Amino acid sequence: MRLTAWVLLVTLLPAAALGSSDSDWEQHFSNGEGLEQEGRHAAAGREFEAALSVAEQLGPDDWRLPVTLHNLGTIARELGRYSESERYYQRAVSIWETRHPQRLTELAGTLQNLGALNMVWGRFSRAETFYRRAYELRVGALGPEHPDVGASLHGLAELAMFQHHYPRAEELYPRAAKILEVAYGADSLRIADVWHNWGFLYSQMRRDSDARSLLDRAAALYDKNVPGHPNMAVILVNLAELDMRAGDLSQARIRLEHAVRICERSLPPDHEQTGIILEAYGRFLNLTKQKKEAKTMMEKSRAILAKGTKETGAAYIIDTSAFVRQR
Length: 327
Known about the structure:
Mean pLDDT is about 85; it is low at about 1-20, about 310-315 and about 320-325. α3 (about 65-80) packs antiparallel against α4. The chain is mainly alpha-helical. It has one domain (about 1-325): Serine Threonine Protein Phosphatase 5, Tetratricopeptide repeat. It is globular and about 60 Å long. It has helices spanning about 20-35, 40-60, 65-80, 80-100, 105-120, 125-140, 145-160, 165-185, 190-205, 210-225, 230-245, 250-265, 270-285, 290-305, and strands at about 1-5, 10, 315-320, 325.
């Protein structure tokens, strides 16, 4: 399962330079950005759809059309509508390549998200092709220390972890973290997500002390900035796993129940993240001999996951690797 905040961030045109249709696009797009950053994906999607209606009238020669398509692809991805997400991304790529060939960094952002989407599907070769092309475009256009290059390194680290190439992932995460921390500061949620995924890697490697240090740092930033964001639920589940290994079942229960509440408030009831987190809670209930409750929880989880969503081996990664800013 992948949780992402893959919003294509843009520097909007000054209001004085915009016509009425442009102003409408700006308002809807800005609203969508804010809602997405709060984790309110469905509401963000409605704003981006309204922005798309305006952008379609502006035509494919206007950069706002592929930007809006990119963000709708992200929202569809967040809501588990993967085929729809792919169609939005592919259309955006086509427009970038044919109408805006000079906008290499924006093209790279959409390619990055196509890489992430294919990674979720287990199409690792295709995922790496997209990720590598995005990385190369960014290095060539922006230089090796640009934050978008850090974002690409983050994505490549996730791909390595999905494939269980742990030494490679362990090499890439600190490189990504260093670049992003210099660019955005240690209080940015972008760096929090790298810390989380790096911590998840160490959890997979059974380096629990290192994992907890990184996950605690990520949790503190989310708790400070957006405590109800779906990504916070993922961090809580991974911390609960460490609690269970350490024998602290009371703390694990608190975290898991909190994670479930966040999912119930912030996600559609049949979202795959909810299904996977319910499954984690069900395993905990089974471990603590609450067989009846565990059975109920696992049945709810299976009902959600049976609706066609894909559960992956790396179930609790957060990906913000395609954060891009249009210059």
